[in-house]
Design a protein that fits this description.
Length: about 525
């Protein structure tokens, strides 16, 4: 019995020793980054980090480009802490790294000895935007500065991101410097740029600037401006790379086409819930007592659909406050905002702050970590606000024939119906469709209360004018404000033609009257002839 227990004890110890040996066997493959696209080889370090020696270690690889691990013969490593526990292998790179797409490319290298293995990553980050290799070329390009201008609305932008953190619809300005470091000119320099998504190896936006030349040792600075407002449904949350490159013909090197590039990493941010305004439009100014139409695009720039969106439009100083229900908006989609504001008659003539706030279904203002969805634009009110404009009436009569191709005269009578002396400016408008010009004998009138004066307007009527035509007589105050705009209607007859015998002008519209007259003359002549013949007989 004792012998049996002893045998079991010995077996247990052996098992523990074997397990300890297996547990202490370990390999490590060190990660490595390739920094030069022209490298033909790469060194990989493999280390035995366990307590037992390892034999027949084999290297294999898989990934985005090709390296030659097959030519590396299996090798041995001693236990950790001893000479020979680590080895560095030089591996040939088969793929020309200059031909790889922009972005990060990775290979997994696996070292295996029996049941023991480990993997390391071999990474090449291709930031070179140039299509060909000429590292010693004379051209250089550098990104000097990147500025996020925000979502531009009129003169007051709203910025949700910052210079290296961009939101959809924001406008970005990039300052780029191009240098000629050679002793001769570089001709036909073209600066190309784009925003690249390395996760899918695609450009979100790309463009180029107008070409130019640089003399020896000269430089030029360009400002590239763009907005993330096209195909925004293709934007993804995450890291992008802004690339810029300059190509040109180097006269130092037999007009060889040369290239240089630069890049900066930026983050494009899609919030979960964020609705903003863009493309706010209205007339430059509004008259007091008038109405002003406001339109804008309401954009959901978050990655979640939004329900029951509303916008508050207000001018605090004028007590204007309207809530507009916009409705549901899908992610990275937009709806239209349209609202009419009534400007008070007693409003002061000045520039006001027109504001917009965007609310979610719970009546909370949309926001990100730094900014609320609040937008502002300058709104200008003009006119003699709070003071009644002078009053006037207009009556118009036709003073000449209204015939195509001839001068036409209209007499306009202007009457001051106000309570004090007023100075008026008279003009004729909207006649270009039937007359080439209009001349007014008195453009300015000073009228006391109840006084009237006549103004003659002469129009040079077009030869092809015909039928009913319109024009407007406008009366403006001394401040240039429109007091009255009176439409006038008149009928233009076709140009007449000459009757061969009388030389009189016959209107083509009255030909039948002239025909009857001619027939009567002929009948009279016939009657006279018959009467003479009867008298002779």
């Amino acid at each position: 019995m004792k012998a049996k227990n002893f045998a079991l004890m010995i077996a247990s110890v052996l098992i523990l020793v074997l397990l300890a040996g297996f547990a202490s066997a370990a390999l490590t493959v060190v990660d490595k980054t390739i920094t030069n696209a022209d490298d033909n080889t790469v060194t990989i370090t493999v280390t035995n980090t366990g307590a037992t020696a390892l034999t027949g270690i084999d290297l294999t690889d898989t990934g985005d480009f090709d390296i030659d691990t097959e030519s590396i013969a299996p090798f041995d490593l001693t236990a950790a802490g001893t000479t020979g526990a680590s080895i560095t292998k030089t591996i040939n790179i088969i793929t020309d790294l200059n031909t790889l797409d922009l972005g990060t490319h990775e290979i997994t290298i696996t070292a295996t000895s029996g049941s023991v293995s480990d993997t390391g990553r071999l990474t090449f980050d291709n930031n070179e935007f140039c299509e060909f290799n000429n590292p010693n070329s004379n051209i250089r390009i550098n990104i000097e500065d990147i500025t996020n201008k925000g979502i531009i609305n009129q003169e007051v932008p709203t910025q949700f991101g910052d210079d290296d953190k961009w939101y959809p619809l924001e406008t970005i300005e990039v300052e780029v410097k191009v240098e000629n470091r050679g002793n001769d000119d570089i001709d036909n320099i073209e600066v190309e740029w784009g925003l690249y998504n390395p996760r899918i190896n695609e450009w979100f936006i790309d463009d180029s600037e107008k070409s130019f030349d640089l003399r020896d040792s000269d430089d030029d600075t360009l400002t590239i401006k763009f907005a993330l407002d096209g195909n925004i449904d293709e934007l993804e949350d995450g890291e992008y790379v802004f690339y810029v490159r300059a190509t040109g013909d180097d006269t130092d090197n037999a007009d060889q086409t040369i290239c240089a590039s630069d890049s900066e990493k930026v983050d494009v941010v899609l919030e979960r819930d964020l609705v903003v305004l863009d493309n706010i439009k209205f007339l430059e100014s509004a008259q007091c007592g008038s109405s002003s139409q406001i339109t804008a695009d309401v954009w959901n720039i978050g990655d979640k659909d939004q329900d029951s969106v509303s916008v508050r439009v207000f001018i605090d100083e004028l007590n204007i406050n309207q809530i507009v229900d916009v409705g549901d908006i899908n992610s990275l989609d937009k709806e239209k905002l349209s609202v009419t504001l009534d400007i008070p008659e007693d409003a002061d003539a000045k520039t006001y702050a027109l504001k917009f706030t965007v609310y979610d279904k719970d009546n909370d203002i949309y926001a990100n970590d730094d900014e609320d969805s609040i937008f502002e634009a300058p709104f200008k009110v003009e006119g003699t606000c709070g003071t009644p404009l002078p009053k006037a009436t207009i009556s118009a009569t036709l003073e000449s024939e209204a015939t195509a191709g001839k001068e036409l005269t209209v007499r306009a009578t202007i009457t001051n119906t106000g309570t004090e002396l007023a100075t008026y400016t008279i003009s004729a408008t909207n006649y270009a469709g039937w007359a080439s010009s209009a001349i007014i004998d008195q453009e300015k009138l000073a009228l006391s209360t109840g006084q009237s004066k006549d103004v003659l307007m002469k129009f040079n009527v077009n030869k092809d004018a015909e039928g009913e035509q319109l024009f407007d007589i406008k009366v403006l105050s001394s401040d240039g404000e429109t007091i009255l705009s009176q439409p006038v209607s008149l009928t233009i007859a076709k140009a007449g033609f000459r009757f061969g015998i009388t030389g009189a002008a016959i209107s083509s519209d009255n030909w039948y009257l002239w025909g009857i007259g001619a027939l009567n003359i002929i009948l009279v002549i016939i009657i006279i002839i018959i009467a003479i013949r009867v008298a002779r007989s």
